[in-house]
Fold:
Amino acid sequence: MPKINGKRLIQDLERLRSFGATGTGVVRLALSPVDMDARGWLAQRMEEAGLSATIDGVGNVFGQSRHPGPALLIGSHTDTQPTGGWLDGALGVIYGLEIARALAECESTRHLALDVASWMDEEGSFSGFLGSRSFVGASVDDALDHARNRDGLLLRDAIAQAGLAGRPRVQLDKTRHRAYLEPHIEQGGRLEAHGKSIGVVTTIVGIRELRLRFTGQRNHAGTTPMSIRRDAGAALVAFIGRMDEEFRQLADADTVWTVGRIDLDPGSFSIVPGSADLSLQFRDASLARLHAMKAALASLVRDFNAKEKVKVEFLDTEPPEDPVTMDAALQAQLAEAAEALAPGRWEAMPSGASHDAQVLAPHLPACMMFVPSIGGVSHDFIEDTSEADLVLGCEVAARAAADILRGMAR
Structure:
């Protein structure tokens, strides 16, 4: 089996961390100057590892083995949230780099083809999953022409400023690429709580995002009796309680829902709110349960409108993301590698967060593995994983990668 170099792995993770380092975290937004500096460094490291590296027309960094296929593709993303952690997707990219080197240094695996990718804008500074969507051939032209970051910069202009305009875009080659592996930090506390070191992902959950608008009557807060008020804010709060009760009856242990934002109009102590908006997101690995939750919500709205003075309507704010199941055979190979290197210290689990793997999965067999997040924290400057778990995770991924590639060669 190939042997990873743990010291080299940590050094590369720390070096990547230095691009945009802010306290214990990292601010490396997609297509920013520091992001492009990091991508340039990564391409250089890929070349040093024996890969043929390129930065394509949307900013994907792609390192291709010089060996002919069939190839395994390992990837994730190196852009961050505005207050990002140092590992997140960066872990998966550096794992891929280290595994490529380990395969090349092992007599029995040096002939195998492993490609490595850092996808652009997974975090959605401009347009979420831009790089992986471009790679699988999805149209990104609308995003190029209309997507802007929080500073108002147009995506197409950002690409030009980064010196990428006119470059060809790397495309999935199904004659070469036979499988995709994405290692990642868990971004939750399940592994830590269960005393496990490795998670083998079964499903990436589906997501629904909606906005509910409550319409009442704006009025004076001091002179309007409670009995005749049409208080949109109070109605919103009452509705949340009913919604929680309905969702809990449908949920399993991994179902989550979040009221992420509430806006009251006009938002004054002295005025009864005339309207109120609620932003809602719910996630689950079961498509049937997602449908049931939305149906329950619609039923609640109908019942509320029939009985209450305040009226409510809801609409989808984002296109739905359906659950994506990881390839069963690849899951089994990850589980076998985990049991060999961390016996009894791994578990199968869903991913509650979205990942580039869900974009690639409809196009080639895909799998994911997790390492623990300390305290279950991610997307924050204090995000961290123990060095022992970082190294073990790479060892598991390397063993699985070698087994997957050997299976392809048979």
About this structure: The chain has two domains: 6-205+323-409, 206-316. The CA atoms of residues 25 and 86 lie 5 Å apart.
